[in-house]
Amino acid sequence: MYWFGEHLSDKKSWQDSAKWSSLSQKRRALNATPIDSIIDLLDSFSKEWTTFSKEALPRLIEESGFSPEETEKTLSLLPGLLSRESLEKRIKAEFVRPAVLDRFTKLPYGGGKVRAVGNGIVLHVTAGNVFLSSIDSLIMGLLTKNLSIVKVSGQNQFFPLFFAEKLKGFDKNEILSDKFAVLHWKGGDSETETFIKSKVNTIIAWGGEEMIASYQKNLPKHVKLLDFGPKISFQLITTQGLEKKNLDVVAEKIVADILPWDQSACASPQNLYLEEGVDKEKLLDAIEKAFLKAPSRGTISDDEATEILKEKYRGLYSELMEEGKISSGPEHLIHLEQNKLLKPSPLHRSLIVKRFQNLEELYSLLEPFSYYLQSCSYLLGAEEKTEYLETLSLTGIKRFAPLGTVTFGMEGAPHDGRFVLRELVHFIGDEVRAQNYGEEILEVENSATLKSHFEKLERPRGYVFSSGGTTGEPKFVHFSYEEFDYMSDMLAANLTRQGVRPGMTVANLFVAGNLWSSFMCVERALEKIGAVQLPIGGMCATENILLYLKKFKPDVVMGIPSMLVMNAEYMESKGEKIEVPMIFYAGEALSEIRKDYLARTWNTMFFGSAGYASVDAGVIGYQCSQAGLGEHHLFSDLVELHIVEEEAVVTSYARSTMPIKNYRTGDKIEWIEGACACGSLDKRFKLLGRVDNVIQIWSCRLLTTDVEAVMSAYGILTFQLKISESREANVVREKLAITYEKGQTDFDQETFLFDLYNRSRDVKDTISFAEFKKDISLTSVASGAIPRNPRTGKISQVLDHRR
Predict the structure, then answer these.
(1) Residues 521-537: b if buried by 16+ CB within 10 A, e if exposed
(2) Angstrom distances, CA of residue 227 to CA of 123, 421, 527, 683
(3) At 205, is the secondary structure helix, strand, or coil?
(4) What is the pTM of this model?
(5) CA nearest 416: which of 258, 203, 269, 232?
(6) Contact 466, 514 (CB under 8 A)
(7) Left (φ > 0), alpha (ψ -120 to 50) or beta: where does 348 sit?
(8) Distance (Å) of CA 710 to CA 259, 563, 713, 759
(9) What is the DSSP letter of 537?
(10) Which of 201, 457, 563, 580 could be joined to 119 by an S-S link, Cβ 3.0–4.6 Å?
(11) DSSP state, residue 654
(12) Per DSSP, which regions of 570-659 are E strands?
């Protein structure tokens, strides 16, 4: 026997209390082991298995009763079972993120964070039909960080102990080799079973009804029982499925399902159902030939031979009295009988064939055996497949697979209707919510702080994005996959609250690539909503954007305001009539004049924010259907928001790899008092522009918002301010050049400058109009001529060339 890393000569000594005292410490050690380390060890061990398998083969042939070819083939499956690729598929299929087994983790679509913790000590009561199954069960226990006790059957004692011995020799650091035991006691030993039930937390039992009943009896309340009792599987062929198929190939597929492990696996078909109309004589002849070409069967016991003989005589009677048919060879038996009800075969290449009229009759034949049904290997027509699978799913069938593939399960698929790994853990939630406990803000962070964090960060799996695209050198930030999932959850909530619904067609015109985040995050959010996506991208050729919008007529277009306007202007110049019911924007403010222009040219009825966010801090706020321009609700479960000297300062609980705590956003905001008509209790705020929207020039403060207001009044949508300085007669003179993309009408520049002068209170109070206009120039350019950032598509509104 093998007891958590040590060999036991006394078969009963494992019941001594001293043997159990150290298990609590071992459980904590296993729980603290990263899942990557567990996978690494098993994957490395798999690469050494070829040497070990040669050593195990002779004994396994003797003990299992399988042929040498079948035994060797089965052994060859183990490296694949232990490989990183296989293990990761299994874990991701059930947990999505392997990290949930290591720490509290955000799972897709879920709120808060979740940790999957092993149940404790798992007893694996294994069957002896396929020697590899005990190792598969053990692997499930280890992947879920459970201490495991493998109870082996009388006919499968060698291989689990052999595996344990080889893993112990390989696992020098005792990552796993001292985290499991391999024991044997006689089935039905009630004293031992009562003892072990009192010590474990979960029992996973593979075997017959009598064994399952034994472990169900007097089961303590704290013990969870996963019972995988006796099952029966079958094959199904319809006339439509067989149409234009080669009978010999079909027969080979039928036999391929039956041969592995001498038909002893739960997925091994025992019955073949043929729809009336299938030429049964020709098909049975082809099956007979396929059996005769098959490799030799393993050895069988006298009892097994007797059962096969009984079925043969039943077949002879059926052939004589009931229009049945029997055919057999040295190592196979095929019995076509009139009785249509599902029936166990004696196995070892014994196939009982039955006929059915239609799907409804087949359903009625199978449904009474719901508890015992496992797999259905099918050959169906494409047009009927969905109806067959949907209907037969109600009979209790746990698995479907194409004919010829049923005995080799797909990695990550459920077993007997269960995701077993999930059954071996319990899930603990950390319902993360932002809370304000009156903490005083003594220090604030800025982009320089984040840049320092990024350079020092050991980046986990996730994304690197660029921040700060309109001015200066780009900064970089990191988002783990979990953090990015939070962001897309929040964006999806933002869009849903404003009316985006499943099935809507949405054109994504945000800029993709170049470490830019918005396109990707919007794409993920729309996937969560269930929209039909047009992933066009803002840098796509304008004529192509026009083509796509005309062709697909999206309900929603999303993008940067200046780029949306540029596309609208192009389409208007071409005389194209486009209707876009809803527009969502981000990256720039949407002025009233831009909004009015888009509403007129695209007949847009609704404008909404795609979310108040920054690449640095992540998503901060959302709009509802009642929000005005610049108004947002706070994502108060995940974000704390404070106003410090008019600036928004945020702490985000959705960010962890690069923590965001008291981070200066650069945005000026104010709180909105009172309840929102939408019913949300989340606090509201209004964006008032950038804190840094003040241009210091001529000893005055010129607000870019004042410039924008006057531009809007004159029908100008897009403009850029350039500040320079020159030396004239020993005087440094500051110059302001305003470049604008020409609107629909011309205007008098003198009148424009006078209106701008009167709008700018600090300028008006400081200098005369004559001085003001002397140092300003106005230049009109064609639509689209002002340079856009090639990475983001944004326009740098202020270019300060002073030194």
Answers:
(1) bbbbbbebbebebbbbb
(2) 12, 14, 37, 51
(3) strand
(4) 0.84
(5) 232
(6) yes
(7) left
(8) 84, 21, 5, 8
(9) -
(10) 201
(11) T
(12) 582-585, 606-609, 612-614, 618-622, 631-634, 639-644, 647-652
Cβ contact 613:625 at 8 Å: no
Going 539 to 542 to 547 to 549, the CA torsion angle's sign is positive
Closest CA to 739 of 696, 795, 693, 700: 795
> Letter for the amino acid at 391?
T
Contact (CB, 8 A) for 152 and 182: yes
Q: Which of 132, 135, 141 is nearest to 203 (CA)?
A: 141
Contact 371, 397 (CB under 8 A): no
Two structure tokens written together for 317: 């009677």
Number of H helices, E strands in the chain: 28, 36
Per residue in 277-312, pLDDT (tens digit) is 999 999 999 999 999 999 999 999 999 999 999 999
**Mind listing the pLDDT tens digit for each residue in 342-397?**
999 999 999 999 999 999 999 999 999 999 999 999 999 999 999 999 999 999 99
- Counted residue by residue, the chain has a size of 803
Residue 345 burial (C-beta neighbours within 10 Å; 0-12, 13-18, 19+): buried
Q: What is the DSSP string of 34-87?
A: -HHHHHHHHHHHHTTHHHHHHHHHHHHHHHH---HHHHHHHHTTHHHHHSHHHH
Res. 469: pLDDT tops 70: no
767, amino acid identity: I
Cα of 389 vs its chain's centroid, Å: 25
